Amino acid sequence: MVSRRAVVTGASTGIGEATVRALRASGWDVVGVARREERLAALAAETGASAIACDLTDQDAVDALVAELDRSGPVHALVQVAGGARGTDSVADGSAADWQWMFDANVLSAQRLVAGLLPLLRRAAEEDGHADAVFVTSTAAQVAYPGGAGYNAAKAAESMLVKVLRQELNGEPIRVVEIAPGMVHTEEFTLNRLRGDSVAAESVYAGVEEPLLAEDVADVIVYALSAPRRVNLDLVTMRPVAQSAQHLLARGPLRPRGLGD
Ligand SMILES: NC(=O)c1ccc[n+]([C@@H]2O[C@H](COP(=O)([O-])OP(=O)(O)OC[C@H]3O[C@@H](n4cnc5c(N)ncnc54)[C@H](OP(=O)(O)O)[C@@H]3O)[C@@H](O)[C@H]2O)c1
């Protein structure tokens, strides 16, 4: 049997990198996509994935990516992980450049990929019975918080794109899945958001017992892709146990209450 092939964006680090590893371990052919070529090459050498460097905010680069994917084989699954946050400014103090980057990286990149890859997904679905599109949004798409506005708005817009796409594909054997993680401790996400301030970035996770790991999100992505093809996980919201809600984050050890000391 020919392996199914997934395109995983954001593959150079964090959740995307973990997803490449997890899908390869599950027998998928994988094409990892991100801007940093050297990191992709190292991951490809280690896992047997392929890699294509691409800036998803550049339409010409996405057109070239789609052409290369079309030339090199079928695309049974798009896993759109690339994205991120810039800044924690208030609405009043927000930087238009940060907001534009967040909209471009999280929303327009997803739209560009869908526009480019849907014909390939349809062809794979025709030949193989079904195809999949998975998007990693965020709990920031669901709950507003002070300092979150640009990211809240971008992730909410990406989430709406996913919901619309699922309806537009009704009647086709193509699943459209949204995974919305809460706090995930990845190497770069908060560091980039806080403009490289490593002390401030680490303090975000300080004392939190077991934030989610990139591998936890990757596991859900693998499940979403390997579940029986009649099963569409519309929206999976996942948080660490220590984060009962966006604003309710326990710092310190998790312990049962009421048992005496
Ligand atoms: N970490 C969290 O707490 C958390 C929680 C909820 C949701 N999320 C979402 O989950 C996704 C991944 O999070 P993460 O923590 O793994 O983030 P991350 O470690 O910052 O990784 C972001 C990835 O996106 C890629 N990327 C960024 N801009 C790109 C562009 N213009 N073109 C191509 N690739 C680009 C980066 O690769 P290059 O720099 O090499 O291009 C990198 O591989 C993001 O969409 C994020 O919003 C994260």
UniProtKB/TrEMBL annotation:
One Pfam family linked to the record: adh_short
Origin superkingdom: Bacteria
GO MF entries: oxidoreductase activity
Entry EC no(s): 1.-.-.-
Keywords on record: Oxidoreductase
Family: Belongs to the short-chain dehydrogenases/reductases (SDR) family.
Name this protein carries in UniProt: SDR family oxidoreductase
